[in-house]
């Protein structure tokens, strides 16, 4: 199990391409930042018909990651209840490579040390099905602060998508994520989180359209699915 610490900053869905390019250029030139290339990520989120995982404040996804010149990789990820405030998300995370385009729930349940969620995967795994997806391109940078704190900067542009009655419903997704990778003291003193906030504040001063956001990609997917269902029922 890992503890994910990530500051999420969102941008309006109608952000002009020139503004997105300006953010990329700024990050390319940011002192302490090293560009790490671009990825294409397709993420399918699973739950039961009764939304048992959502009710347990957990999210389960199957992700395909691809980049030019390299074969794609499939990963399964489980995230459980955490805290979010001021755009900072702190949560438990289990991520595992899988052989192909399918969940390997036994392996994930064995790794998960939250008994209720692990039991749910074992007893209700057969009921899981994909409910929505996020599909986006991600540009990456590794940023090293003056004290040695390491941060991954990810700029995501794409969509959240729900299939309903053979129609695809989407909303734009434009986010900047700052994830704590390593802090000199293991972040026992909270210095890593302070670096995340300092970097986020610096970027927001340069790009005022950036807004701290406590809503995860999974939550956005559930909300879009609910809106689409309500529209169909109206």
TrEMBL record:
It is an enzyme of class 3 (hydrolase). The gene is ygiF. This is Inorganic triphosphatase. InterPro entries: CYTH-like_dom_sf, CYTH_domain, YgiF. Its EC number is 3.6.1.25. The keyword Hydrolase applies. It comes from the Bacteria. It comes from Pandoraea terrae. SUPFAM superfamilies: CYTH-like phosphatases. Residues 2-228 form the CYTH domain. Keywords: Hydrolase. GO terms for molecular function: inorganic triphosphate phosphatase activity; metal ion binding.
């Amino acid at each position: 199990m890992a503890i994910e610490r990530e500051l999420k900053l969102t941008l309006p869905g109608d952000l002009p391409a020139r503004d997105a390019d300006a953010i990329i250029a700024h990050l390319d030139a940011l002192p302490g930042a090293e560009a790490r290339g671009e990825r294409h990520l397709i993420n399918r989120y699973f739950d039961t018909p009764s939304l048992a995982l959502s009710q347990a404040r957990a999210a389960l996804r199957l992700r395909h990651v691809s980049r030019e010149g390299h074969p794609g990789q499939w990963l399964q990820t489980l995230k459980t209840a955490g805290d979010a405030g001021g755009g900072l998300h702190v949560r438990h995370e289990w991520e595992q490579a899988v052989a192909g385009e399918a969940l390997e729930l036994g392996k994930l349940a064995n790794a998960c040390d939250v008994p209720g969620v692990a039991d749910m995967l074992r007893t209700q795994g057969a009921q899981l099905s994909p409910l929505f997806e996020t599909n986006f391109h991600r540009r990456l940078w590794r940023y090293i602060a003056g004290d040695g704190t390491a941060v991954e900067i990810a700029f995501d542009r794409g969509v959240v998508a729900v299939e309903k009655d053979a129609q695809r419903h989407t909303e734009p997704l434009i986010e900047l994520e700052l994830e704590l990778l390593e802090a000199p003291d293991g972040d026992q003193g909270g210095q890593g989180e302070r670096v995340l906030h300092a970097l986020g504040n610096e970027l927001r001063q340069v790009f005022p359209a950036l807004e701290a956001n406590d809503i995860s990609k999974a939550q956005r997917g559930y909300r879009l699915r609910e809106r689409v269902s309500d529209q169909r029922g109206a």
